[in-house]
Design goal:
Largest sheet: 7 strands, mixed
Helix content: 25-40%
Distance between the termini: 45 Å
Strand content: 25-35%
CATH topology of one domain: Rossmann fold
Strand order of the largest sheet: 3-2-1-4-5-7-6
Shape: globular
Length: 170
């Protein structure tokens, strides 16, 4: 399981406490050091990756590697194709971040870090959507979009499927 742009890895440590192998990935040395200390205090093991996820022209994530990826309160649009490739077939993605309505409630305010209506769902629309929400949440009040989805198995090409039918009939 990858906790992407994890900060202090609060979510990843929670998953590690439930027996999951977790890699906490962030660009901040200080955040990852705090994550290691928090994991030790919680009695769980995590791995940490210090990685700049926003390097131009660079895919920082290994392909078909993770059974699950979680992303909370982070948006870097050029990274979306890398996230999609990094999940194994039938892997699970849990993603939650702010929408363009968020400035009514506080930070962040930069539109580069805020989802447009339907944007998150559109990125993963061809995947099996298990949960989707876009709207206002309370405690604290915030404008968010959430998705839990599963990467599909590769589809058989039409010619391969046709050949299999012919083989079975013949």
């Amino acid at each position: 399981m990858l906790d992407l742009a994890s900060g202090d890895c609060h979510n990843g440590i929670s998953l590690a406490g439930r027996g999951r192998e977790v890699i906490c990935c962030d660009a901040s040395h200080a955040s990852l050091e705090l994550a290691r200390k928090s994991a030790k205090q919680a009695g769980v093991e995590i791995q940490t990756w210090h990685l700049d996820l926003e390097q131009s022209g660079f895919n920082p994530l290994p392909a078909n590697y993770f059974a699950g990826i979680i992303v909370f309160r982070y948006l870097h649009r050029p990274l979306i194709p890398s996230i999609k490739k990094a999940l194994k077939n039938e892997g699970i993605l849990i993603y939650e971040t702010y929408t363009i309505i968020q400035p009514k409630f506080g930070k962040p305010r930069n539109p580069d870090f805020l989802l447009k209506p339907g944007e998150l769902r559109n990125w993963f629309g061809e995947w099996k959507v298990i949960h989707h929400f876009e709207g206002i949440e309370d405690n604290p009040k915030r404008a968010i979009a959430q998705i839990v989805c599963q990467k599909p198995l590769p589809q058989y090409s039409q010619s391969y499927a046709s050949a299999q039918v012919l083989e079975a009939d013949g």
